[in-house]
């Protein structure tokens, strides 16, 4: 996974709440291998005239600024592949679906959560200045909007570390192999029924 | 030694922490891992890294999302769909996993099959690459959906890194009225708190209305926790839970069962356990509901009218309401009971268990459906039992189709689609744009309400239907 450190890029505003992963990646594309080019499926059924992602005024946007509960719904990681393969590295919203946010971090896509009125303000600025850039500095946890104002955001330290380092967590987990083995041994005595009877 | 009172969630969480990091992330041991056809990305990741499945005996593969609802004796016509079903079998076979394939007598939707087979037990940690894994919390398990990279992590390590979520208790007292079901209850909860109202939280459902529910009803409640944004939903195990589990194929038997029950009885939240948030609801206030928009949070009593965006003070929200009404083809102020529907779907991991089919059949018995509809049982055992009870005859006699178990028209990826522009009365969990097919319009409701809509051809208050 590509590490995420800083990014300055055009941002595109999307005034829609509760964008779910079915909209990000319609279910019929779920059977496609990643090599099929998930970027082509991003928002596939939403791409009608006037859809901001297709508006050339926003340039080659790499940052999406949207409304609350982005990425709710199905756990499909393909929704994240579609955004990443479509060129996005960062999504800014007042809130995210939990599973989506976890999937995003595992694929180098940064999710920035900011208060609703702040995000609405960012979308207004972008609508007034289409093509304006936004800068995200993950180590410093700041986002600089088109008006030049620096906004700081919170992020889970583990998620931040994985993003900045581009870490694969299986390797990290295997450092705890002894603890996992010890847990399994004790648990087998404590809760012997956990391993199911075979049918 | 006096211990801090702990909640059900805290007890299950604490019992599974293998290691903690200084930043508060915990490495959780996972007791059950369910896979479906969509797990091919995750198998690709572990195969690519040359890793094996650490605990194959705790890992189960289930064909449900892509399986056909009809003509199972014939090969699947669409090669891409057929490939999804055979790829799961091949991946499960290569890694030595128990696979519930298309022709397995236990086959069904993973969230119906696992409880039914006795794989879902109280106090377990359960994950699956599917957001409705929250369903299994009905047994007092901590169960949640994960993405493909996490699936590959669980396959390789049987653990998962998690930040401890916050807790929320929703207490529902009093009794649900006649024809008001668990589906109406959970939709009312989601409407009250919003589609992201429980984000970052694990919900515990408590109170006399919850205690009074069957396991089927509890599964429906926990299933839709994710539609309120919750990480998971949980209900304390009790005698209803234990008697459901006893004797199921994979459940502990004899002395191990008795010892398990003894431990499971210690799981319910202690008196005085603290929750980050609390909410109470009176079950008697809940009416049969339907959704009018493209989010489950748009659930309203069926007796209501379509809301008017002009009455919404926030211009952004008003704009979003207009967009939903436009997609749904509805005008503000219309009585919902006047909205004509084109088809009915009774099925999904939310509402395709025996109790659901009985409730729908009770409404349909002796009546005719005036629109086409499909009834898809949640599992092969549900299907057999429904046939033994004559429910399938009721559906067929009323004019509805009777399908083979699977996800079917809930997500449409086996080819069972609602056509563009069609309006479907559906017992599923999501009414998102395009969920049941491109430009399909979905109204969520209970099985009895969907059956009532089939009979009248419009959204209908099942309480007004009277006897056939
Ligand atoms: S029935 Fe629907 S919600 Fe349930 S697992 Fe299948 S596709 Fe998902």
TrEMBL record, chain A:
- UniProt xrefs under Gene3D superfamilies: Aconitase, domain 4 (3.20.19.10)
Q: Name one GO biological process term.
A: L-leucine biosynthetic process
Query: Pathway listed for it?
Result: Amino-acid biosynthesis; L-leucine biosynthesis; L-leucine from 3-methyl-2-oxobutanoate: step 2/4
Q: Name one Pfam family in it.
A: Aconitase_C
Q: Highest taxon of the source?
A: Bacteria
- Which InterPro entries does its entry note? 3-IsopropMal_deHydase_ssu (IPR004431), Aconitase/3IPM_dehydase_swvl (IPR015928), AconitaseA/IPMdHydase_ssu_swvl (IPR000573), IPMI_Swivel (IPR033940), LeuD (IPR050075)
Q: Name the keywords, alphabetized.
A: Amino-acid biosynthesis, Branched-chain amino acid biosynthesis, Leucine biosynthesis, Lyase
Q: MF terms per GO, please?
A: 3-isopropylmalate dehydratase activity
A single GO cellular-component term on record: 3-isopropylmalate dehydratase complex
EC main class here is lyase
What does the record note on quaternary structure?
Answer: Heterodimer of LeuC and LeuD.
Q: What HAMAP family does the annotation carry?
A: LeuD_type1
Q: Briefly, what is this protein's role?
A: Catalyzes the isomerization between 2-isopropylmalate and 3-isopropylmalate, via the formation of 2-isopropylmaleate.
Q: Which family does it belong to?
A: Belongs to the LeuD family. LeuD type 1 subfamily.
Name of the protein in its database record: 3-isopropylmalate dehydratase small subunit
From TrEMBL, chain B:
Catalytic activities: (2R,3S)-3-isopropylmalate = (2S)-2-isopropylmalate
Write down the SUPFAM superfamilies for this protein, in alphabetical order: Aconitase iron-sulfur domain
Q: What superkingdom does the record give?
A: Bacteria
Give the EC class as a word.
lyase
Q: Which GO terms of the molecular function aspect are on file?
A: 3-isopropylmalate dehydratase activity; 4 iron, 4 sulfur cluster binding; metal ion binding
Query: Pfam families this protein is in?
Result: Aconitase (PF00330)
| Listed pathway(s) | Amino-acid biosynthesis; L-leucine biosynthesis; L-leucine from 3-methyl-2-oxobutanoate: step 2/4
Boundaries of each Aconitase/3-isopropylmalate dehydratase large subunit alpha/beta/alpha domain copy?
Answer: 10-457
Its EC number(s): 4.2.1.33
GO biological process terms on file: L-leucine biosynthetic process
Alphabetically sorted, this entry's keywords are:
4Fe-4S, Amino-acid biosynthesis, Branched-chain amino acid biosynthesis, Iron, Iron-sulfur, Leucine biosynthesis, Lyase, Metal-binding
The UniProt annotation places [4Fe-4S] cluster binding at: 349, 407, 410
Q: In the record's cofactor note, how is the cofactor described as bound?
A: Binds 1 [4Fe-4S] cluster per subunit.
Obligatory cofactor(s): [4Fe-4S] cluster
Q: Which InterPro entries match?
A: 3-IsopropMal_deHydase_lsu, Acnase/IPM_dHydase_lsu_aba_1/3, Acoase/IPM_deHydtase_lsu_aba, Aconitase_4Fe-4S_BS, Aconitase_4Fe-4S_dom, IPM_dehydratase_rel_enz, IPMI_cat
Functional summary from the UniProt entry: Catalyzes the isomerization between 2-isopropylmalate and 3-isopropylmalate, via the formation of 2-isopropylmaleate.
Its subunit composition reads: Heterodimer of LeuC and LeuD.
What family is this?
Belongs to the aconitase/IPM isomerase family. LeuC type 1 subfamily.
Official protein name in the record: 3-isopropylmalate dehydratase large subunit
The organism of origin for this protein:
Azospirillum lipoferum
Q: Which gene encodes it?
A: leuC
């Amino acid at each position: 996974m590509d590490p995420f450190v800083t990014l300055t890029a055009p941002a595109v505003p999307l005034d829609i709440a509760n964008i779910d992963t079915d909209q990000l990646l319609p279910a019929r594309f779920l059977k496609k291998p990643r090599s099929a080019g998930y970027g082509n499926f991003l928002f596939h059924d939403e791409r009608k005239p006037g859809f901001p992602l297709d508006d050339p005024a926003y340039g080659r946007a790499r940052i999406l600024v949207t409304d609350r509960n982005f990425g709710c719904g199905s756990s499909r990681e393909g929704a994240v592949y579609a955004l990443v393969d479509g060129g996005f590295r960062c999504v800014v919203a007042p809130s995210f679906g939990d599973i989506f946010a976890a999937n995003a971090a595992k694929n180098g896509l940064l999710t920035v959560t900011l208060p609703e009125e702040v995000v609405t303000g960012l979308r207004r600025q972008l609508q007034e200045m289409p093509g304006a850039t936004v800068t995200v500095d993950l180590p410093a946890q700041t986002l600089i909007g088109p008006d030049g104002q620096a906004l700081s955001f919170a992020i889970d330290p583990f998620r931040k570390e994985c993003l900045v380092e581009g870490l694969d967590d299986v390797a990290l987990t295997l450092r705890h192999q002894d603890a996992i083995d010890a847990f399994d041994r004790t648990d087998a005595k404590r809760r012997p029924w956990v391993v199911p009877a075979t049918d | 030694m006096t211990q801090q009172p702990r909640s059900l969630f805290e007890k299950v969480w604490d019992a599974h922490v293998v290691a903690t990091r200084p930043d508060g992330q915990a490495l959780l041991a996972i007791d059950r891992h369910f896979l479906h056809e969509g797990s091919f990305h995750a198998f690709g990741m572990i195969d690519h890294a040359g890793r094996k499945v650490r605990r194959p005996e705790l890992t189960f593969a289930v064909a449900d999302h892509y399986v056909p609802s009809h003509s199972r004796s014939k090969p699947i016509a669409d090669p891409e769909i057929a490939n999804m079903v055979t790829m799961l079998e091949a991946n499960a076979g290569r890694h030595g996993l128990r696979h519930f394939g298309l022709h397995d007598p236990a086959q069904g939707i993973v969230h119906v099959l696992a409880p039914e087979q006795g794989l879902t037990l109280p106090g377990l940690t359960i994950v699956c690459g599917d957001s409705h894994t929250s369903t299994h919390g009905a047994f007092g398990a901590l169960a949640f959906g994960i993405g493909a990279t996490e699936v590959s992590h669980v396959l390789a390590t049987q653990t998962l890194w998690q930040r401890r979520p916050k807790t929320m208790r929703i207490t529902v007292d009093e009794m649900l009225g006649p024809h008001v079901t668990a589906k109406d209850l959970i939709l009312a909860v989601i409407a009250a708190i919003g589609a992201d109202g429980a984000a970052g939280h694990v919900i515990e459902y408590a109170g006399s209305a919850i205690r009074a529910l069957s396991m089927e009803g509890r599964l429906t409640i926990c299933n839709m926790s994710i539609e309120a944004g919750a990480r998971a939903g949980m209900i304390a195990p009790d005698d209803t839970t234990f008697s459901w589990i006893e004797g199921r194929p994979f459940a502990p038997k004899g002395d191990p069962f008795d010892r398990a029950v003894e431990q499971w009885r210690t799981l319910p939240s202690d008196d005085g356990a603290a929750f980050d948030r609390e909410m109470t609801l009176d079950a008697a206030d809940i009416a049969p509901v339907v959704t009018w928009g493209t989010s489950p949070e748009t659930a309203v009593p069926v007796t209501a009218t379509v809301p008017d965006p002009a009455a919404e003070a926030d211009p952004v929200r008003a704009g979003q309401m207009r967009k939903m009404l436009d997609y749904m083809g509805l005008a503000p102020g219309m009585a919902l009971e006047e909205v004509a529907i084109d088809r009915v779907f009774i099925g999904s991991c939310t509402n395709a268990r025996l109790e659901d089919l009985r409730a729908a059949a009770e409404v349909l018995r002796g009546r005719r459906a005036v629109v086409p509809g499909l009834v898809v049982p949640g599992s092969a055992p549900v299907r057999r039992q429904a046939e033994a009870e004559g429910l399938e005859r009721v559906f067929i006699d009323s004019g509805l189709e009777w399908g083979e178990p699977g996800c079917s028209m809930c997500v449409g990826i086996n080819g069972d689609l609602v056509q563009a522009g069609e309006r479907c009365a559906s017992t599923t969990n999501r009414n998102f744009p395009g969920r049941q097919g491109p430009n399909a319009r979905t109204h969520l409701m209970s099985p009895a309400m969907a059956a009532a809509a089939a009979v009248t051809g419009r959204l209908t208050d099942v309480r007004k239907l009277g006897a056939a």
